[in-house]
Design brief:
By secondary structure, the protein is an all-alpha fold. Helices cover 65% and strands 0% of the residues.
Length: 133
Amino acid sequence: MLSRREHSFRELLQKLTLKGFQRDAVEELLNEFVELGWQSDQRFAESYSRSRLQKGFGPVRIQYELRERGIDKGLNKVFDEAPDWQTLLSELHSKKYGAQAPTDMKERAKRIRFFQHKGFTHDMIKQLFNQMS
């Protein structure tokens, strides 16, 4: 499994126990993998976050998905330098909606829901729309 992509400790534990392996044996083996450097939650978090960032996801969504996979560290510890979330949000808006601002409240609400689903905070979205006005 690790030869194809990085996995978190929790992911590997769940996958292997679902395949019928004893939990204690799997934990012991995975701890050995960690000691040897074959499995690293830090490396997984960096790789996963980078891929989600490239797909246009925001900090809230990435953090949630990392927690789901057993990574409790903050995003600030994942990236060497923090991404410019506002620039990413602007690029995502341009890609999806072009350069024009929402024309009415219904359209604005629709865009807000889309960006919140992607994992951007209300403040980030508000700042985006303020820049467009």
